[in-house]
Design goal:
The chain is an alpha/beta fold. It contains 5 helices and 11 strands.
Length: 257
Amino acid sequence: MLKIGIIGGTGLDDPKLLRDYENIEVNTEYGLPSSLITTGTIKRVPVAILARHGKSHTIWPTGVNFRANIMALKKLGCTHILATTACGSLRNRIKPGDFVFPDQFIDFTRKRDLTFFEDFSKEIKHIPMAVPFCTVLRKLLHITSKKLKIHSHATGTVVTIEGPRFSSRAESERFRLIGGDIINMSTVPEVVLAREAQIHYAVIAMSTDYDCWKDDEEPVSWSVIVKRMKQNASNVKKLMVETVPLIYKLNCNLCTS
């Protein structure tokens, strides 16, 4: 049975949004996930919502137990994941308030558990990653965003850094030079682990700032991010509510292209 996992979760466990909801604890062989998982339905579609950084945003980016998060959703039967994330824009065309549905990533993390497959004595596992995000989910999100008149970008390369600090200006310029379009601290290894777990995965990236490469804009700060996230919260909810039933109706197979 198809069930949709939602990671990020800011405001998405609103009782007015979910029906028949409850908070449950799920333990995994990798430990506990970041939060209790809120299960319920959106327009009769089963969903499971997990707060990546904890319900009160208390977990720093590298402190997130990404493996436990993905495995907990897998144990609950999630076949698809929609992940929300704030991001900085590395391009003029991607303005604060825009949504981006990335199709590629560049990994600049250094300290994270990147795989479920650490024991090659049993079986060698090298997962293809040429097309890391589910193509069908991305298309559905983009089509729905246009229907809702939310300004969005169908493609983009997300650079994931370790955090919790933001980039230096030199780093920000470097990420632009190597092809980055947006930057965040959460997509890797989440996308990799979802692929290893054979779960469809797509990201709703909400642009909140221009990082620090743009001379005529204020450099990114946490207060700016929070302000823009609050402004975007209603659009995220609308996008989820409209997209979730489409995923259920389509029930796409695991996409690699």
